[in-house]
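Lab channel / #folding
Pinned by the channel admin:
"Please post every new chain as: sequence first, then the structure tokens as a reply. Keep commentary short and put observations after the output so the thread stays searchable."

First post following the new format, from NK:
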Amino acid sequence: MDKRWLVIAVISLYFMSPVRSEVQDSIPEIIQNIQESKIVRTLEKVSDFLNNPDTNYVAHNRYNFTVMLQSNNLYEHYKLASKEEDKQSLAFSPTMHAKLGGYFGYKWLLVGWSFNVANKKAAEKRKEFSLSINTAALGFDFFHRKGGRDFKISDIKNIDLGNSSDYDKKFTGMTAKVTGGDLYWIFNNKKYSHPAAFAQSTQQLKSASSLISGISYSRHVLDLDTEQLPRNILEALDPSLRIEKLSYSNYTIHTGYAYNWVFAKNWLAAASFSPAVALKSARVHTIDDSNHHLDLNIDFIIRAGIVYNNSRFFAGGDFMMNTYKYSSDQIAFNNRFGSTRVYGGINFGLKKKYKGGN
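Reply from TO:
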């Protein structure tokens, strides 16, 4: 007998058997037991605590499903500066690349797929992943970025190029990687909605503000082959800038201010600014030496956006920038990561508790 028919026969016997009836009869009881379990009740209490805004200021999403289109542009910038007397500096940036994606959401879960609309060859060597969890009171962001070899020399200062001031700006001797996470608490979470501004999962009805505090960790690794620099730059470069690898772990505590301005019905302008006290544990590898340093300085987290949201339809754009700074006796290193989004979508599938109401 064909194995496929044997499988079908077995499945048919199961569906006709009293065993199936017993399983079906027990399903409601199983579900009820799960719903009444201590773990589920505890999770529900935690969820209610984290998502319990004042409905005069913040409206919950009334729908189960979301479809959204989004365009995302990513920006990176790296600057190395010498602390020698001549104050030389080199800055690098990859070609800014754009992504276009479609997303589908069910309640709190949003999944999707995006693709590069330009610079596809360079983008093949890039790896990017991000995850955000947004509640009224607590937020978490995780990010991982690994750059390709599509960097360009965006700026040089105080480097004597001699008779020839021209140089090839394309630079393939550099890769950069950053991985990190940020956990933050929104103090005025009853009236101010961070998700309304940056996740579109709620709707801000009245203007409100809040302090935001959190902790974050990130790991940064920069591999640099200075031998691939243009010859006239390499010959004039300070030894302190002939770095082979720079890596550091960044531990921060940040506190900032966020404001949501409802300037017209269904319209929201939002901004937040958070300085961060940062401790960096760094190791710098040069051609001749390797040194470990600790550095305490100030980083920044900046967000801004504008949103139209009438509960059913939403559209808008936002901007986010993270800045980092490291300094030792010989060099200073600055890196920035930014992204801009433009998006639009529709919510549908009215939740049961809102059916029959306004």
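NK: The first strand starts at residue 58 and ends at 60.
TO: also worth noting, The chain has a mean pLDDT of 83.
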